[in-house]
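Reviewers of the previous submission asked for a worked example of the structure-prediction workflow described in the proposal, so we include one complete record here. The input consisted solely of the amino acid sequence. No template or homolog information was supplied to the procedure at any stage.
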Amino acid sequence: PAYPPALKRLIRTINKLDKNNDWVNYHSAIPYEDLHHVYQESHLGIFASSCENMPNILLETMASGLPIACSNRGTMPEVLGDSGVYFDPEQPIEIFNALESLINNTQLRSEKANASFLEVQKYSWSICANETFSFLNKVATDYKKSLCAE
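From that input alone, the workflow returned the following structure tokens.
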């Protein structure tokens, strides 16, 4: 879903630049179980958010093995590392330049796609769960020890 005035401008621009919808497709809300089909049919990902704490959509795009043009804000560079082409999400010319570099350079696209797929491998729900429960166990153990020391 999108902010309606911005979506209206986006659709108008897409229709102007890609009248036959040959290379740009806007998808509104997609059911989770269908999301992998959209990624499989894509040639690159764009992640233009200016504020995220854990960008799950970015992780999904990385796991799909797509080259990514990405916002340089928040945690995105920390998550994507050197595996993307970055831009300031408030500077349209930077977004254009990032997309143009990926579209026009097949080697860069391939390198970034492979790198992002490898980078995302360090994220998993089981690692997250194990680290979370280990942390909680340490907090509880340390607290119990502090009570006994008193």
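The CA atoms of residues 47 and 70 lie 5 Å apart. We consider this example representative of the routine output the project will generate in years two and three.
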